[in-house]
Specification:
The chain is mainly beta and about 230 residues long. About 15% of the residues lie in helices and about 40% in strands. A five-stranded mixed barrel has the order 5-7-6-9-8.
Length: about 230
């Protein structure tokens, strides 16, 4: 009888012990850290080349870059400037032979999303028409026949997936010497396709000559450009 009583007490005490034992605290769940905002990383050798703004049919703005580390343009659509004024006599003769003696061509382009592409070139002008000096020039779009001397032609302008055809515009060159070119532009036209919207794009540029092949007289200070 005593043995049964002790056994019953042991069972009751054991049951009470396990019933009253606190549950282990659950491990705290670490809160997820907020995702960092994506930042545009620009290499140390990249300098600002162009500021481009579209005011219509909608407002957009781009900053494009020029790579100071390369003697040749890098990437599919880099911002750059080229001129046979920066070539030595042998290079000029070769450019003339290739029918590629262009006094000035300017490209403001970015591969960001959305990207931009603005290209201006005076294909048929000579030293007297577009000298190595400041000046104001007319910008045109597509023309029938050969481009008249003294005019800059705008290629199809890209703004993201949209294509625009230039109709008119002005190129102001503030400084054009053996180190590079600086100035601004304003272009008007219409979006490609039927019933295309009117567009206006304007921008400024400050682009060194690159040096190297076909620009051996270039005097751009690359140490300043790469800072």
């Amino acid at each position: 009888m005593h043995t049964l009583l002790r056994a019953s007490l042991v069972i009751v005490v054991a049951s009470t012990f396990f019933a009253c034992k606190p549950k282990p605290e659950s491990e705290p769940v670490a809160e997820a850290e907020p995702e960092a905002e994506e930042e545009t990383v620009v290499a140390d050798t990249m300098i600002e080349a162009c500021q481009v703004t579209m005011t219509e049919p909608e407002s957009q703005r781009w900053t494009t870059y020029w790579d100071a580390s390369a003697t040749l343009p890098a990437g599919p659509s880099p911002s750059s400037a080229s001129s046979y004024h920066w070539a030595n006599p042998d290079e000029k003769a070769l450019l003339v032979k290739r029918n590629a003696a262009v006094p000035l061509a300017i490209l403001c382009a970015s591969n960001d999303s959305p990207g931009v592409y603005v290209s201006l070139a005076a294909f048929t002008s000579g030293d007297a028409t577009i000298p190595l000096a400041s000046g104001e020039y007319e910008i045109v779009g597509r023309v029938e026949g050969e481009l008249p001397p003294g005019l800059f032609q705008a290629a199809t302008i890209m703004a993201g997936p949209r294509r625009f055809e230039a109709k008119s515009g002005t190129l102001d060159i503030d400084n054009f010497d053996m180190s590079g070119v600086r100035g601004s532009f304003r272009i008007q036209g219409t979006e490609a396709g039927e019933d295309g919207a009117d567009f206006t794009v304007e921008g400024s540029f400050d682009i060194p000559c690159r040096g190297g092949d076909m620009e051996n007289l270039c005097e751009a200070d690359k140490t300043v450009a790469s800072e």
